[in-house]
Write a structure and sequence with these properties.
Layout: H1 16-21, H2 27-39, H3 41-49, E1 63-66, E2 75-78, E3 83-84, H4 86-97, E4 104-109, E5 116-120, H5 121-137, E6 145-149, H6 154-165, E7 169-172, H7 179-189, E8 193-197, E9 200-202, E10 205-207, H8 209-222, E11 229-233, E12 241-243, E13 255-257, H9 259-262, E14 286-288, H10 289-293, E15 305-306, E16 310-316, E17 324-329, H11 330-344, E18 352-355, H12 362-374, E19 378-382, H13 393-401, E20 405-408, H14 410-417, H15 422-425, E21 434-437, H16 444-454, E22 461-463, E23 498-501, E24 507-508, E25 512-518, E26 528-529, H17 533-541, E27 548-556, E28 562-567, E29 571-574, E30 577-580, H18 581-589, E31 594-604, E32 608-617, H19 625-638, E33 647-650, H20 664-671, H21 687-694
Parallel strand pairs: 4-19, 6-7, 6-8, 7-16, 8-11, 11-14, 18-19, 18-20, 20-21, 21-22, 32-33
Antiparallel strand pairs: 1-2, 3-15, 4-5, 9-10, 12-13, 16-17, 17-26, 23-24, 23-25, 25-27, 27-28, 29-30, 31-32
Bound molecules: 5'-O-[(S)-butoxy(hydroxy)phosphoryl]adenosine.
């Protein structure tokens, strides 16, 4: 399946320097290791596991699984019998065993240039232990769920690892999601505690996070669910004084000087004086982060967890519209993200690594927190935007910290490309060695710009294909080993066995195109949908028994390279974020004016795809600009700003089959102004088509 020798034509080779020190220095070495990972996983992963701390060793084989629904329940178990703690592995082990206590774990770079702070591995461990003790004192126990709704600050990492230390399961909700979305996720995960912050700035815009969090907690209460505690970090407001009022007291929070905060290196990291949010305070549930941690102990024995204990839940869009709580477990995830991080970015101890994703997405979980920390890496943690205060910001940060490995999304590359090369070449970027992308297919033009302008043809580009569900990279080049083809995620990572199936579920050999599936598990694959194992089986394993179905289309070329062609289900990928059409549709029909809605994707030069919404109104309602604005607002409030519709079109009639099914294929053509509709013989009422073309809401094509 993987060629013995790398092709010589139509490919680009990594710079020679990288090969000298690389972990996997040639294609031959990649192939040799790949075969070992498949033929002898126990030995392959067993060697890797030796570098981690296990309280007790595993018994039996490395992976035990069933991937075939016709043979019973789907399950994956990795390293059964072993006990460990990820927090211990990524912090204590680095500080005490590897003597990395003084090494910088994160350079925090705020939204505003000049806002910055540094945290070492030792400091991170201290902060995590304190918060872990706080959580324990608030009654959080092993297995309990904790929701985290925070901006990109070091304390977000502290909060995650504090949960992990005590065996609690974190469920991070991206801080761009609405109160409604947060509420839905809190209810689904039945979490007992929420950790949030006062607010943050995105460019010039203040986000009142605590206000939104409170609204979510109210909604939960209205639905009969009480979140018992809410810990709020003061990120924007000054922290000289901390609230120490005990819970339940009706008086406004009393303040007392908090001595430890005077020495907090994080203190006053936000320099510019800007309006600070007035935070609503509910003394029945609200607690002040600083007030609690400053009196907590720095000693906290980790909770030893079984390999298959839950580690975290992360929600991802599902085709029914209801988000799925993707559940990852302890040992397999830890080994997989540590190994992919090390090999895909060819991590070296002198690296400064920067992943621009938000920790609220899987990329941030795996490749800001767990993967880099497991390797003792130094990373940049960036709060801001690529275009604020101007479009050189990314490259200025690269120069400021001498970033060597840089990981971003195609949408960011395409956005910056629009401004030409000068904002890039204005900065030196000589430190860069490897460039990565993730989130959606990267078009060859953007790939070339990234490779040529940003990396000056010195740096290999690793186009990493993976999903929230896969835990880590599954198709990816290795920077010194894999000859690159712009736009291709190239070959499988170790332990991963891809296949391409046709509609009848037959495996296709050689050059072919079809459904991308995986034939066996790798350590980092998700284990279940939280609280709904049946949905897990139906979504990923039912269509083609014996395979994990990604939902993506894929082409394999004559050299065996894999090319992701995009989603082939009811999912849209907007700026690297998956949205389900059903979720947006249900937000639209909740508006009283809307009778029916159908949402399709329309190609977008920066975002990859944009949302094009067709709405049929109830009788007697007229379509106008004000209604359109209300509908946009409705979707933002229901889901979040990432789901804001780009186009809304009044559609008095929708193209349906005689059995009443909306023909999305036809709507996609209309959104794109493509007249060649293909076979429309099953349409119940062909006359709606012309009207839809006339009513198109954009005239740009
Ligand atoms: C979907 C998963 C994995 C972290 C970010 C997104 C698309 C992701 C690539 C890539 C082509 C890609 C797929 C996938 N995707 N990376 N390198 N090339 N497509 O995580 O929200 O779970 O989305 O993103 O469609 O299924 P996610």
């Amino acid at each position: 399946m993987i060629p013995d020798k790398a092709p010589r034509e139509d490919v680009l080779y990594a710079a020679g320097d990288l090969k000298k020190e690389a972990h996997v220095p040639s294609f031959e070495k990649y192939k040799e290791l790949y075969i070992k990972s498949i033929d002898n996983p126990d030995e392959f992963w067993g060697d890797i596991a030796k570098d981690f701390y296990w309280k007790t060793k595993h018994t039996g084989q490395f992976l035990d699984y069933n991937f075939d629904v016709t043979k019973g329940e789907i399950f994956v178990k990795c390293m059964e019998g072993a006990t460990t703690n990820i927090c211990y592995n990524v912090l204590d082990r680095n500080v005490h065993e590897k003597k990395l206590g003084d090494k910088v774990a994160f350079y925090w770079e705020g939204n505003e240039p000049g806002d910055e702070s540094t945290v070492t591995y030792r400091e991170l461990l201290q902060q995590v232990c304190r918060l872990a003790n706080v959580l324990k004192s608030q009654g959080v126990k092993k297995g309990d769920r904790v929701s985290i709704y925070m901006p990109m600050v070091v304390e977000l990492v502290v909060a995650m690892l504090a949960c992990v230390r005590i065996g609690a399961v974190h469920s991070i909700v991206f801080a761009g999601f609405s109160a409604e979305s947060l509420c839905e996720r809190i209810l689904d995960s039945q979490c007992c505690l929420l950790i949030t912050a006062d607010g943050f700035y995105r460019g010039d815009k203040l986000i009142n996070l605590k206000v939104i969090a409170d609204e979510a907690l109210h909604k939960c209460r209205d639905k009969g669910y009480l979140v018992q505690r809410c810990i709020m970090l003061r990120h924007l407001s000054k922290v000289e004084e901390a609230e120490v009022t005990p819970l339940g007291s009706q008086s406004p929070p009393a303040k007392r000087p908090c001595p430890d905060l005077q020495q907090d290196p994080q203190r006053d990291r936000v320099k510019k004086t800007r309006p600070v949010p007035q935070v609503p305070w509910n003394p029945k549930v609200d607690l002040c982060w600083h007030g609690l941690v400053c009196v907590a102990s720095e000693e906290c024995e980790p909770e030893w967890c079984d390999s298959e204990d839950p580690l975290f839940i992360l929600y991802t869009s599902g085709s029914t519209g209801k988000p799925k709580g993707v559940l990852h477990t302890v040992s397999g995830y830890m080994l997989y993200v540590a190994t992919t991080f090390k090999l895909v970015f060819d991590y070296q101890p002198s690296d400064v690594y920067w992943c621009t994703a938000d920790i609220g997405w899987i990329t941030g979980h795996s490749y800001i927190t767990y993967g880099p920390l497991a390797n003792g890496a130094t990373s940049v943690l960036f709060e801001g935007l690529p275009t604020y205060p101007d479009v050189s910001r990314m490259w200025e940060i690269v120069d400021k910290y001498s970033v060597t490995k840089f990981y971003t999304a195609p949408t960011a590359i395409r956005l910056l490309m629009k401004y030409g090369s000068e904002p890039v070449t204005r900065c030196k970027r000589t430190s860069l060695k490897v460039l990565g992308t993730v989130g959606e297919p990267i078009n060859p033009e953007a790939w070339q710009w990234y490779y040529t302008v940003v990396g000056e043809k010195r740096c290999p580009v690793v186009d990493t294909f993976w999903q929230t569900e896969t835990g880590g990279h599954v198709l990816t080049p290795l920077p010194a080993a894999t000859p690159m083809k712009p736009g291709s995620a190239t070959f499988p990572f170790f332990g991963v066995v891809p296949a391409i199936l046709n509609e009848s579920g037959e495996e296709l050999e050689g050059p072919s195109e079809g459904y991308l599936v995986f034939k066996q598990p790798w350590p980092g694959v998700m284990r279940t949908v939280y609280g709904n194992h049946q949905r897990f089986e139906t979504t990923y394993f039912k269509k083609f028994p014996g395979y994990y179905v990604t939902g993506d289309g894929c082409r394999r070329d004559k050299d065996g390279y894999y090319w992701i062609t995009g989603r082939i289900d009811d999912m849209l990928n907007v700026s690297g974020h998956l949205l389900s059409t059903a979720e947006v549709e249900s937000a639209l029909v909740e508006h009283e004016a809307v009778a029916e809605a159908a949402v399709v994707g329309r190609p977008h030069p920066v975002k990859g795809e944009s949302l094009y919404c067709f709405v049929s109104l109830r009788d007697g309602v007229t379509y106008n600009r004000s209604l359109e604005a209300q509908l946009r607002k409705q979707v933002r409030e229901k889901i979040g700003a990432i789901a804001t519709p780009d186009y809304i079109q009044n559609a008095p009639g929708l193209p349906k089959t005689r059995s009443g099914k909306i023909m999305r294929r036809v709507l996609r053509k209309i959104a794109n102004n493509e007249r060649d509709l293909g076979d429309v013989s099953t349409l119940a009422d062909p006359s709606v088509i012309e009207q839809l073309f006339e009513n198109r809401s954009c005239s740009d094509v």
